[in-house]
Structure formats: structure tokens, C-alpha cells
UniProtKB/TrEMBL annotation, chains A, B:
Domain N-acetyltransferase span(s) in chain numbering: 77-227
UniProt xrefs under InterPro entries: Acyl_CoA_acyltransferase, Diverse_Substrate_AcTransf, GNAT_dom
Keywords: Acyltransferase, Transferase
Pfam families: Acetyltransf_1
Entry protein name: Tyramine N-feruloyltransferase 4/11-like
Superkingdom assignment: Eukaryota
Length: 237, 237
């Protein structure tokens, strides 16, 4: 289902020129409504909105369980926030266990934040902060490694914030978290038709393995296996 | 490093004819030495033994943490055990939280267990049980699903136990666990050169997506990102 209709009252647009200040931080439950909208937008980008089944409640359950997995082991969302004014020095450690990363970008062209109310950050008292994009990842495992790695599930930026180099900051932050916390790799899949995305990951140092194909058992094909439920122990697979 | 030299004293071989009894169960810490040997063998299969860095201790840390993740969320190993004699009815629930699955196979040719001592199961009092293979998987997440799925990392059988249909039992058991516990998919990657494996997964109902490629940031390319360690908060990605 689609998020509430998005207002585009241009009178409230914020135009950022010169410098844009960014902060990367771990998402918290207070970001749910923004994550819900960003996940909807990535469905739009792929023409998949008919498949968008999430609700804020199901996302809360997926991303912010009462008894969360250890830091970075469960599903983890990093948000990139932007502001026309500088961010304060982050506290040494936040409640979320990850110290936010800040970076200032010099803008070659003005950036227009056209959905001020919809994407205003609720994280702290600074009121001119907007959510620009996210990275989504979680711990993965392999018989070929003696330690966990990360599976990098998706990276997304709202249209206003593309082509600014922010993707490198966000992916680079995930890679830094991996390298600095003993995770041995950052893996994922990339669409071959998305040349910009493909080249981006290669430039970030990702090695592409042409000899593998991604496969998925899902939908009806998966549910066929549910019939074993009552026969568990009888072994009639 | 290679496991201890494997004795091949044929006098202790066990030849199984007629029927072979199998049991699929969740691995426990008592299976560590067997998992270690099976992981070594899958490295041999891929000519990767020079990359095998695991020790029984590192595997214990990877697979059997003191404070484990919830059932099936962390790295999970299902073992397929074989025996020339029937398995007892499994207890309704085991300590591990998964009720073992049994299946009997009619053999068209004799099966020789040539490493009786190396792969004798230590799981229960039944002494004629041998570890034949494993499946390795863990929970994964996607912005395109409102619930977790499984990532199916690897499936491996010792040479004596191939071509018997046991792969279907093991993969089917993982699929059943997914379908019966609200996990929405079983995903993974498959090598295009491994036609037998590729066809196996397609026959099991797996949809292959030709438009994706698997990529990995690892080794030196990943360690380049570690320099941000001391600059966390300064944002110099």
C-alpha cells in the first residue's frame, strides 16, 4: 500500500547551495515512517509497488525487535541525513552503539529538498535535517570464512540527493564498520542492466563473480514444502 | 589446515545394501569435529584447501555461540546422518528445538562407508550412525519482503552418499522449515558451471535470476576502509 499522498507545496521547499552537511547514523524506531517511505520509493524505482506489502508495524517487527540481535548481526539500516547547516559533534557513543559519521560536500549545483515535512528527521533537536537515503545490511556466514561478513541488501537515495557522491559515503561507512569490527566481507548482488550501480560497486572495490547466478525459492514454489508440517518426523520429503 | 590424516583401513568399512536409513537433525556442538571435516572437504571439492583457515575453535565461535541467536536466525547447520539400521522415533522436541526428520531410501547399489571412525555420529547412543552431509543456512532480510527469509549457503555430501536423492531431502527440509515458520524465501547463489547443482536447484523449484551478479568486497579491498577507524565522527570516507 502507498504511503499517504505526498504534498509538493513548493513554498516549503528548502534550497541548499554551496555546502551540504551530512550525517550517517544507525536508524532507530523513531525513523520507522521515513524508512517505510524510502522502502516504498525503492519499490517505485523498480516498478514493484504492487508488491509492497510492508506496513510500519511489519517493518517495526522486522527491523526493531524488542529483543534485538547483537549490533550489526540483525537487519541494520544506516540513514544518511542532510542539512544546510553543520551537525553538532556526535556523542562518543550513542544509545544505538554506533557513533555517527559526518561529512561536508561542496555542491556544484543547488539541491532542492522538496518534501520538507515528509522527510524531516526526528532524531534530535536540530530541525533542518532531512533523510536523504539509506543502506540496509545484516550479518552473513559462509563455510569459506571463519568469521561472519555482511550481506549488503540495498542502497537508495531520494532523487534530489543522487550524483553527489553520497552513495560512496554510505557504502564506505558500511565497509568501514565491517573492516573495523572483524567482519570479513561485504557481499551482495547487483543487476547487470543497472550499469551505473554496477560500476559504482566495482569502483568501491567490489569483485564481481560472473560464474554465479542468484536463485530464489519463494511464493507457491516454497509453500509446496509446507505440507511436511504434520509429517515432521515421518520424513516424507 | 588439513584435518588429521584420514585412515582408510578397509577392514573397518561398513557396506550398506538394500535399505539405508537417514535422519536430518540440527547440528550441535558435539558435531564440531565432523563439521570441521565436512567444511574441509567442500574446500577440497572446490580446490580451495589453501584458503581453509577455520579451526574447531573458530567454528565453535561462528556456529555455537554462548548466547545463540533465536532458532534459525543465526548460522544453522542441518546434518544428514545415515545408518544400516532404523532410527528410533525422534523425541517430540529436542533440546535444539527442531524435531529430526527420518526417511528410508531403497538402494539400487551398495553404499560403502569407508571412514567409519572419522564420521561416526556422537549424537546419541546408536553407534552405527554416520554423518553423510550437511546444509548450511541463516536468516536473511530484504526491503522487498515484510518478513525474513533464509539464505542457503551450502549443501555438501561426502562422495559415498551422492546420487541417492539425499540432497533433495536436505534442501527440502530447509524449505519446509522456512515455509512452516514464516520465512518467505530461500535464496542463494549457484555456479553456472556446476550444471548438476544448477539443475538440482531448478528442479527443487528455485527461480534463477539471470540479470544479477554476485559481488564481494573482501581482503585488501575491504581493509582499505579500516582507516576510518580513528576518524569515526570526522566523516572522511
Amino acid at each position: 500500500m502507498a504511503p499517504e499522498a505526498i504534498t509538493t507545496d513548493a513554498s516549503s521547499d528548502v534550497t541548499i547551495t554551496g555546502k551540504i552537511y551530512t550525517r550517517v547514523r544507525l536508524a532507530t524506531k523513531s525513523d520507522l515512517s521515513h524508512i517505510y517511505k524510502l522502502f516504498y520509493q525503492i519499490h517505485e524505482y523498480h516498478n514493484y509497488t504492487h508488491l509492497y506489502k510492508a506496513t510500519e508495524s511489519s517493518l517495526a517487527n522486522l527491523l526493531f525487535k524488542e529483543n534485538p540481535l547483537p549490533l550489526f548481526y540483525g537487519p541494520s539500516v544506516l540513514l544518511l541525513e542532510v542539512s544546510p547547516t553543520p551537525f553538532d559533534e556526535p556523542k562518543t557513543t550513542t544509545n544505538e552503539g554506533f557513533k555517527p559519521v559526518r561529512k561536508t560536500f561542496d555542491l556544484k549545483f543547488p539541491v532542492v529538498e522538496g518534501q520538507v515535512e515528509e522527510f524531516r528527521s526526528k532524531y534530535d533537536d536540530k530541525s533542518d535535517v532531512y533523510i536523504a537515503g539509506y543502506a540496509f545490511f545484516y550479518a552473513n556466514y559462509s563455510c569459506f570464512y571463519d568469521k561472519p561478513g555482511f550481506y549488503f541488501e540495498s542502497l537508495y537515495f531520494r532523487e534530489s540527493y543522487r550524483k553527489l557522491g553520497m552513495g560512496s559515503l554510505l557504502f564506505g561507512t558500511v565497509a568501514s564498520i565491517a573492516a573495523n569490527n572483524g567482519f570479513v566481507s561485504v557481499e551482495g548482488i547487483v543487476a547487470v542492466w543497472n550499469k551505473k550501480s554496477y560500476d559504482f560497486y566495482v569502483n568501491m572495490g567490489v569483485e564481481i563473480f560472473d560464474e554465479f547466478r542468484y536463485g530464489k525459492l519463494h511464493g507457491e514454489n516454497l509453500q509446496k514444502y509446507a505440507h511436511n508440517k504434520d509429517k515432521n518426523g515421518e520424513g516424507s520429503c
